[in-house]
Each structure stands twice: as structure tokens, then as C-alpha cells.
């Protein structure tokens, strides 16, 4: 059974567009980490009374684990659109005493 006329052309065009999109996305990054553009040096610390952030477990990499889920609990009685929480862990962590 032959595909409908033009199907191969459309499939080739879609594949080409996807390839170009992926290539341009990779080139646009230039190896730069997306979070590196956050101007952390301009951040201000102004915690509100009653606001908290709690992460568990408190220490990663115990027992020789090299990956682990982290649970965050947070609350702010007066949240704003400018509030954010940054969580960072190295890609390969090991506990060293």
C-alpha cells in the first residue's frame, strides 16, 4: 500500500524542521547553564516573620548514595511574585567526613 501523495514530502519537511529546531536550541545555549543568568549578587534577603523553608534530608550522600530525593516544605504568610527558592546540588555528590 502506497502512502497518500505528498506524505513523504511532509514527513521529510517535519523532520528537517525538528532537526533545525534542535540544532538552534543547542547552539543558542552555547554550553551556558540556564540558571547562570540569575543575578544572585543582586538578590536581597528580606524574610518575612513566619516564613520558612525546610529541606530534608539535611545532608545528602550518606551511606554512599549518589542520588536522592529532597523534600522541600515552605511557607510565606505574605507571598509575592518576586519570591523564589533556589535549590542546588552537585551532579555527583559524595559525603566526605
UniProtKB/TrEMBL annotation:
It comes from the Eukaryota. Residues 53-94 form the Purple acid phosphatase Fn3-like domain. Keywords: Signal. InterPro entries: Fn3_PAP. Residues 1-25 form the signal peptide. The keyword Signal applies. This is Purple acid phosphatase Fn3-like domain-containing protein. It comes from Eleusine coracana subsp. coracana. The gene is ga26605.
Amino acid at each position: 500500500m502506497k502512502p497518500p501523495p505528498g506524505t513523504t514530502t511532509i514527513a521529510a519537511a517535519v523532520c528537517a524542521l525538528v532537526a533545525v529546531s534542535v540544532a538552534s536550541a543547542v547552539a543558542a545555549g552555547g554550553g551556558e547553564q540556564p540558571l547562570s543568568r540569575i543575578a544572585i549578587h543582586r538578590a536581597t534577603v528580606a524574610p518575612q516573620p513566619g516564613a520558612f523553608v525546610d529541606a530534608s534530608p539535611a545532608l545528602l550522600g550518606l551511606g554512599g548514595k549518589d542520588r536522592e530525593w529532597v523534600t522541600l516544605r515552605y511557607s510565606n504568610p505574605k507571598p509575592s511574585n518576586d519570591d523564589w527558592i533556589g535549590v542546588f546540588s552537585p551532579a555527583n555528590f559524595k559525603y566526605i567526613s
